[in-house]
Amino acid sequence: MEKNRFTICANNYIDCLRQEGRYSTAHVYKHAIRSFSQFCGTQSITFSRINRETLKRYSNYLLASRLKPNTISTYMRMLRSIYNRGVEAGSAPYVPRLFHDVYTGVDVRQKKALPAGELHRLLYEDPKSERLRRTQTIAALMFQFCGMSFADLAHLEKSALDQSVLRYNRIKTKTPMSVEVLDTARGMINQLRSNQEPIPDCPDYLFDILCGNKKRKDERAYREYQSALRRFNNRLKDLARALRLKSPVSSYTLRHSWATTAKYRGVPIEMISESLGHKSIKTTQIYLKG
User: Fold this and answer.
1) Which of 131, 143, 142 shows the shortest CA–CA distance to 237?
2) Is the predicted pLDDT of residue 1 greater than 60, yes or no?
3) Which terminus in the chain has less CB density within 10 A, N or C?
4) 251-290: buried (b, 16+ CB within 10 Å) or exposed (e) per residue?
């Protein structure tokens, strides 16, 4: 038990997250612990391995693996969270400022809005492909719905659409949201609208991005969403190549692009923050710094 107490603490927490239906967070923790285990060369890790020297070497290992700063920061914060749980449980000694020498911040330079010309081409120039036109329609709706995240768009249910207003709770923060549906969005909504008959105890999705044949707390529903997100991001890259864009594009690019466009149109940061569904205006300020 002493030889792998860190591993046990980590796995127990991941199990708790999955039981709570927080599959996305559990997924990130699982990847972080797997990465650290590979670095240590063992699946049985003690809390004594969590020391300044090991953390510094692990940070250099991640840098040498060409991981992005935000990914490195996420892994380090996951390790710190498990370490803190061990300290609270009396399984690990408390070491002040243990993670002080490794990166646990947020690199705002990684996520950038598209230049206005490229954004316009991404949303409106014909890619001359039905598959890419569908991807473009999804992207345009995300932008028109105040930079809505792909997760929120994919999980919208038919009950969310009330005449000219969308009312829903954000997937990430559960923040209640209301978004006006402009006339320009109605045709796009109809293009993507799901025709599947509702299944008892399953979500009745507005769009045909997800199947709607799995219960909301079913882990298979989370895996289906992850597949849909990967597919959308890959097709966004295909769309960017077809339209000869020079900037990198992902689902988050649209969210940052909307926020930046709103900023330069003179929209107050408080309104941008509320429209994005951020719980803190500091998060919005990080968005706009980039």
Assistant:
1) 131
2) no
3) N
4) bbbbbbbbbbbbbeeeeeeeebbbbbbbeeeeebeebbee
